[in-house]
Amino acid sequence: MIHFNISDILDADKFFRRNLINSLAGYKPAMLIGTKSNQGQENLAIFSQVFHIGATPPLLGVLFRPDSVERHTLQNIRENKHFTLNQTALDFTDKAHQTSARYATDQSEFEATGLTPEYKSGLFSPFVKESPLQIYCELAEEIALPINGTILVIGAIKDIFITEEMLTNDGFIDPSRGKVVAAVGLDAYYKPELITRYAYAKPDKKPETMN
Amino acid sequence: MIHFNISDILDADKFFRRNLINSLAGYKPAMLIGTKSNQGQENLAIFSQVFHIGATPPLLGVLFRPDSVERHTLQNIRENKHFTLNQTALDFTDKAHQTSARYATDQSEFEATGLTPEYKSGLFSPFVKESPLQIYCELAEEIALPINGTILVIGAIKDIFITEEMLTNDGFIDPSRGKVVAAVGLDAYYKPELITRYAYAKPDKKPETMN
Q: Does residue A66 register a pLDDT over 70?
């Protein structure tokens, strides 16, 4: 096996280090965050640092680096407390990735990439019409991590919209049925295939598949 | 599309809600955390809430629910400040899932599941020998999220061990080359296949693949 110790890591070329460290945690969602400013300016940006925080109440977390292109998204969330999360599917992965370009403040990434803003009755922020799994969130908490200034935004889930084919009888959502892609590192996208679901593990039983 | 509003979610059957909310964020890593108590008791547990926090210095975050089977892992990390992160590969996914069973305090999940503890020179905590991507971390920060008591453990990356086939020239690690699996929800595992890597996105350029 190849071994990098902390000196090797810190001495490495900056781009090499960034790719290496960003891909260590492996698979993550390619989630499009839709927001709108109070002046009506739409924003769409891809985020892969999105994760489950709790089921009751239902909460999701998103990590922001304040010095990046993500700043319009964070500004809008702070301004009106709402945002949408939209899973990326295989047929618009290129457009989803393109939202990471540094567009001007007055340019909508929806228009620039060709993704379609979708407004739902009574909800302020735009969804991505092409997405098979759309979530509406309200800002619940914002925490700055003392260690490096990364900002953890916790969203309270208010609405979930999902294609029928992805939802199974016990509430589990199979993203592969909606051709949802996974992201790795800063620029790689994957098409996952379901291997199996396992039954709840117990000490005195062997692993059992649920298929 | 099927629509769940917050009342539908809160009124749903507990297991349905747990499955639904846990699968919203989609793909995530199936990471085995290896620890050892100061008395020498080994512990191994699967975690899917593991994510990138920063590249310089290199940091990873792990979310813990304090009331769960994960408590031995957290106790050990607090006790001696070290832990390993090991990506799960296809040929031991069943054993990795089985580590989530509530084994007795004096039972090692390595022994119970048949995974092999591996000790590396100078490093306290056990790795999973079968894993193609192993990371050694030191506890850097622990933050309790006020909203629901979830604990965010931030680990400073000290060592990375990786099979040669997974590492690409620019530092990107392709987990699919090591047959690393993705997790979704509480019990589902996926085999991802690389679609493409995209070049750094710029406003005046169309998305370009790097293959």
A: no
Per-residue DSSP letter, A177: G
Q: What is the pLDDT of residue A69?
A: 56
Q: Which residues on B lie below 8 Å from A162 (Cβ)?
A: 1-2, 4
Asked whether the beta carbons of A183 and A190 are under 8 A apart, the reply is yes
Within 10 angstroms of residue B34's Cβ, the number of other Cβ atoms is 29
Residues of A in contact with B99 (CB under 8 A): 201
ipTM of the complex, rounded to two decimals:
0.96
- Which helix (H) or strand (E) covers residue A8, if one does? helix A6-11
Do the chains contact at A195 and B181, CB–CB below 8 Å? Answer: yes
Q: Which residues from A are below 8 Å from B155, CB to CB?
A: none
Yes or no, beta carbons of B171 and A97 under 8 Å apart: no
Burial class (CB in 10 A: 0-12, 13-18, 19+), A31: buried
Looking at beta carbons, which residues of chain A come within 8 Å of B60? 24-25
What is the Cα–Cα distance from A130 to A117, expressed in whole angstroms?
Answer: 9
Q: What is the pTM of this model?
A: 0.96
Measure CB to CB from residue A167 to each of B2, B9, B87 and give the nearest one: B2
| Residue B23 C-alpha, separation from nearest chain A C-alpha, in angstroms | 6
List CB contacts of B11: < 8 A, sequence separation 6 or more: none
Q: Flag if A29 and B31 touch (Cβ within 8 Å).
A: no
Chain B residues whose CB is inside 8 A of the A147 CB are 53-54, 59, 140-141, 154
Q: How far is CA B192 from the centre of its chain?
A: 16
Nearest CA in chain A to B144: A143
Quickly state the pLDDT bin for A104 (edges 50, 70, 90).
confident
pLDDT for position A71 = 79
